[in-house]
Amino acid sequence: MANLANRFGSNPILAPADLAPSAPGMRIECLLNPGVFRFSGKTWLLVRVAERPEQNPGITSLPIVGETGQIEILEFNNDDPKLDRDDPRVIRYDGREYLTTMSHLRLVSSTDGIHFEAEPDYGLLSGSGPLESYGIEDCRVAQIGDTYYLTYTQVSQHGVGVGLRTTQDWHTITEHGMMLPPHNKDCAIFDEVIGDKYYVLHRPSSPNLGGNYIWLAESPDLVHWGNHHCLVHSRPGMWDSARVGAGAAPIRTSEGWLEIYHGANHGHRYCLGAMLLHPEQPRRVIARSVEPIMEPVEPYEQQGFFGNVIFTNGHVVDGDVLTIYYGASDTVICGAQFSISQILDSLS
Amino acid sequence: MANLANRFGSNPILAPADLAPSAPGMRIECLLNPGVFRFSGKTWLLVRVAERPEQNPGITSLPIVGETGQIEILEFNNDDPKLDRDDPRVIRYDGREYLTTMSHLRLVSSTDGIHFEAEPDYGLLSGSGPLESYGIEDCRVAQIGDTYYLTYTQVSQHGVGVGLRTTQDWHTITEHGMMLPPHNKDCAIFDEVIGDKYYVLHRPSSPNLGGNYIWLAESPDLVHWGNHHCLVHSRPGMWDSARVGAGAAPIRTSEGWLEIYHGANHGHRYCLGAMLLHPEQPRRVIARSVEPIMEPVEPYEQQGFFGNVIFTNGHVVDGDVLTIYYGASDTVICGAQFSISQILDSLS
Asked: What is the reported pTM?
């Protein structure tokens, strides 16, 4: 087993109690899966913050964004036979599905990459419009020139798709709507053009014929996408048998594009692996981890809101050192470092 | 009940026996869901032809396109407990799904719009490459300027998505890959720009949170698509409770864009309805059929490979007369005429 991660000694580095709820009556249930970028001389995390209303006995309360953009609270009686609460993440009622929590994105920053503080001068990023009425989740941040491209999961009754926003200063943020239609998430833009095209990794899911696989698409402008191509499947019997999905932007190395991805088995155990794409022809998968490069083994990775999960969608690169930030057990934020050359060696 | 269709007296107008199989040992099982266009002074259908190998006793044989582009035959013993043949359209074996038939597209033409003949001077359109290894299906044909845009369903083990090909002369056909990723089908391009953008209707499907709904997307170039928006849902308790999907290109009328769409209930009964979109802002749904405008009532619409199905994805417009061509019971091709003004009246 190739466990190549050096975890931060101070893990977890952020927990729900470290941030203030977004509104009175709301409680932060989980911190998850941050996007990561450098800006203004510091390392920043765009943390997914999952909140739910304070719960009263016998009642399940959950938030949605209403027509007017305000948060509305839905309440269900726990004795109602139409209510299905088996999944901690999803409520089913009378054939319709709701999320138990609603997520927004919050900025925190650090000068050392380990100790992060809230950035109250910057607004939080919330769901906006009918395609984000159940919130926004798991944002990747790619920097191309002076512009940051935010690709994140939009959740609503209409489906789960990939939203795009852009910013240069993190104060003024422009919305570009849904860039990939349902069911899609885990979308990471390559932060360089290859040839004359932009590329993106994404993860559609199929109700039949197909699965939860990683795909590649092309664009002339980063807003409109086409020429989709299937890169890798989940692998029966292996650690990534049920689903795979890209992490953050692929890393340019001397051997090709190195992508850290997550894989889960049918027991919903999430590990990290790597794959290497051809430097000029990213459709060509050169290599892929047989064993995970990191598995959920620490107590904070095994127990929480949804245990046995490590999930990364953000990192920074300094020479051979790859520092990933990751969500553990869908509850806390952690960090770990890898040697890029060690990961490449594990693939050969 | 608003049944507004005047069926052709000669229905069905094309049946499997009317065309020759594409190769020795293959049998045409069904003719389905033609794209329709005018070219060279005639009306043309681009018919979906579903074939399967001649079946031997006790064995289920099915075709796929192999790595080299040649058709390969897979065989399963009917006694094998891993084999699931409950659905006439899909074979399940050991957790993997295959189609019982493989479809290609065939050109037929007519001078009167009723009597169609094969066009042997034109090649058939077959699956090509890894995303079409289970065939291609249900092509819409939009004409913009001198170019025909073919949007069709690509089927493979990687998933079900929308492919794009273009042609001007129906001899040289250019492939543009997958334009909408899985799970997606029922894709109809508007045959005019609105403002400065191209638009398309499409139908993603979600394994959870969402459903089989009709969406709208925008493009600068007809190849790359973004800014997806959900237009209409299936409607619980109604004739279109389980799934809805666009027919052919929307029809410009004085009141807006008229779209004929199909809806199915949970009993897989497929009917046709209409919706009206705002002429300049196609995101705005002005009206939608409460009752179907056409239902499967004729024997050839109720009995066949998959009965109780009428499905259209092609039409021609002459003044107030809308002539649709449609697949009936997934077996034969039929025609029917409507008055556009009567459909509009039924929506008001």
From this structure: 0.96
